[in-house]
Amino acid sequence: VQLQASGGGLVQAGGSLRLSCVASGRTFSNEYMGWFRQAPGREREFVGRMSSRSDTYVSNSVKGRFTMSRDNAKNTMYLQMNSLKPEDTAVYYCAAGGASGISYDYWGQGTQVTVSS
Predict the structure, then answer these.
(1) Residue 86: phi, psi to the nearest 5?
(2) Which residues, 6 or more positions from 112, have their beta carbon under 8 angstroms from its beta carbon?
(3) What's the N-to-C CA distance of the chain in angstroms?
(4) Any long-range contacts for 10-15 (C-beta under 8 Å, 24+ apart)?
């Protein structure tokens, strides 16, 4: 089982990026998928999670700016990030598996997002 996150890059403050997380090896259509991020010198931070029914919950720090979606037919989850701020700079990780949305069985390798001021 692999989770491949992509779509990161360098963007100016106020810009947008869309991250993708493609799962291979099994389907997660009936399980939670989530996004986390980790900035240098900081602990990993929860960004958002999405249930199998596409119910979403995002952290207050990104609410109103980030949107999650998923395409179960493609076994893919997306994170649309708008109005990016320098404090959004981090490595973004996707995770999948599990029924709670709190703990996850599988993690991707991360994609770097850098927001310049």
Answers:
(1) -55, -35
(2) 8, 9, 90, 91, 92
(3) 37
(4) 10/114, 10/115, 10/116, 11/84, 11/113, 11/114, 11/115, 11/116, 12/115, 12/116, 13/84, 13/85, 13/86, 13/115, 13/116, 13/117, 14/83, 14/84, 15/84, 15/115
The number of CA neighbours under 13 Å toward the Cβ of 108 is: 27
Structure tokens at 92: 């973004």
Cα(111)–Cα(90) distance, integer angstroms: 8
Long-range contacts, 61-69 (Cβ 8 Å, 24+): 62/88, 68/35
pLDDT in tens, 17-76: 999 999 999 888 889 999 999 999 999 999 999 998 889 999 999 999 999 999 989 999
Is the Cβ–Cβ distance between 68 and 59 less than 8 Å?
Answer: no
Q: Locate the DSSP E strands across 1-117.
A: 2-6, 9-12, 17-24, 33-38, 45-50, 56-58, 66-71, 76-81, 90-96, 106-107, 111-116
